[in-house]
Amino acid sequence: MAQRTQLIRNAAWLWFTATLVVMAIAFRQAIFLAPTEATMGDVQRIFYYHVPFAIFGLVFPYVNLLASLAYLYFRSRNPLSALTADALALASAEVTVLYTSVGLMTGMLWAKPVWGIWWTWDARLTTYFILWLLYVSYLLTRRFTSAGSASGQTSALAAVLSIFAAVDVPIVYMSIRWWRTQHPSPVFGGGADSGLDPSLYPAFLWNVAGWAMWGIFILLFRFALERRRQIAEQEAALRTI
Amino acid sequence: MKYIQHVLSHLRKDLRLEWRSRDSINGMLFFALLIVAVFSLAFDPTGYPTTARQISGGVIWVAILFASVTALNQSWTREQRNQVLDAQRMAPSPASALFLGKALANLLFVMAVEVVLAPIFIIFYNLHPLGNTWLLALVMPLGTWALVVNGTFFAALGLRTRNRELLLPLLLLPVSLPALLAMVQATTGILTGDLDPIQINLWIRQLGAYDVIFTTICILLFETILHAE
Known about the structure:
The structure holds 2 protein chains of 2 kinds.
Chain A: H1 2-33, H2 47-74, H3 79-115, H4 123-145, H5 151-177, H6 201-240
Chain B: H1 2-21, H2 23-43, H3 49-80, H4 84-90, H5 95-124, H6 136-157, H7 164-192, H8 197-226
């Protein structure tokens, strides 16, 4: 057990160092090496940060949903696996809020000089904002329900809420899409003239890799922390018996 | 068949309880009236009939939303008195029947409030609708059901939490935003007569789809909520 813990700790340090290295390369690529964009100028460099955050802000909710479904499945079958799934759900929800917050803020910083406004109620922006709202309310629910000692209640209610969020977000997107849209059309896989200039790719890909590694790192770190809390709680409960 | 009987007996019970106290409907009605009064002070709708038409779709739904939030928590608090909810948990009837009965009862209460509110609203806002007002007979029940079905569910979800009065709007509003958008757009379109009938039709269909999807999820997940301990 101790050997395994040591192994995990070494792997975590290695991963963390690798993340820092990739992020340093990505920073150099994005700020110094990538050529300045023709129409927007240096403001376009926010793109290298905004898009990775926006992408992973949409990936972590799926982790949350899968963990929540796993929790509901294991709840009556295998309580220990259910606890693990719940820890993963909590960690991914917190990382989701972090990534969507940064995605929203970098988007606003870009929109002010380029569109002339901080915010518009466009389909993608609104959907993204509602995703953020849903996960903030998810975390609030967890906080409000964890008052008593029954932590099983918190997990079950939060898992149900995660399913609601997962169903709601596509509906929001569909409903607002033909209401109004201002966000740039998809850069990747859009139409014939979409796509990035090849000279901008290195900066973009390094940043995607760096922020993905960072997101996975804090996700697992938070997960390990929550697992420790759960184990400490179990031991305290056992000691009272 | 048996299921429908269970739903109906839950519905009858809730209607009888409300008939004896009339707490929810009176509270909701007065609250909605206050919201209508506050908004008419802010916008002076009688002086500007065009503005009145443009804003009244939003105002009436905000009034109904806030008013129904005040009543939804009460509808479950009733069940907590004398440990009725624990008895419901042990009852052999399906849990979703309890939920559906209560959601239908809440729908009837909010609809009753709307029926009283509509003439008051027309008088206070000096409202002359320009579109096909009969469509409101479709929009109002669909929109109300969207609010009430999720609201009843989230009120049950927050029943055993610390700040349940606060938690309900925090959960209900983000999840209901697509429905709110659809009903406000449809209502405003009908009142102003500016919106293409095809578009109004599309909003109404979207509202219907939202209702179907969320009613299904609520029914499927209610048992988890009721037995979450």
